[in-house]
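subagent[fold] <- orchestrator: predict structure for attached chain, return tokens only, no commentary.
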Amino acid sequence: MTKLDRSAIEEIIPHREPFLLLDEVVELVPGERVHARRYVHEDEWYFAGHFPGQPIMPGVLTVEALAQAGAVGVLSLEENRGRLALFAGIDGLRFKRIVRPGDTLDLYCDLEQVRGPIGRGKARAEVDGELAVRGTLTFAVGEAPE
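subagent[fold] -> orchestrator:
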């Protein structure tokens, strides 16, 4: 089991501000599972327009945060270091709870299958133990960015 801070996350995935949506990795078993966190602050760039007076984290950004967590799980494998994990599919995605400023978003991805460059993972996001989003993410591991 491995814990990672933001700088260690940046050594694994290429995302950077303002699009790096992980603050820490609480647990990592490379190629198997990851539990990451996002602390949702009231000054997030997207709250100014989503929605004025009623700030809600966009669902697509919650899904992106889940994908980034899954990418940490896949790209932390030695054979995938320095590569990219790209979306190849999203299945059975359901939104169950609104995410607001002040929430701590716990992001989980259990990798079910990794064969060659393609993999799938069951992903879920929770706030205070309450399900916010769940679904299955499919990814393709691509070449390293230039």
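orchestrator: received. Logging for downstream: The domain at 2-142 is CATH 3.10.129.10 (Thiol Ester Dehydrase; Chain A). The two ends are 31 Å apart (CA to CA).
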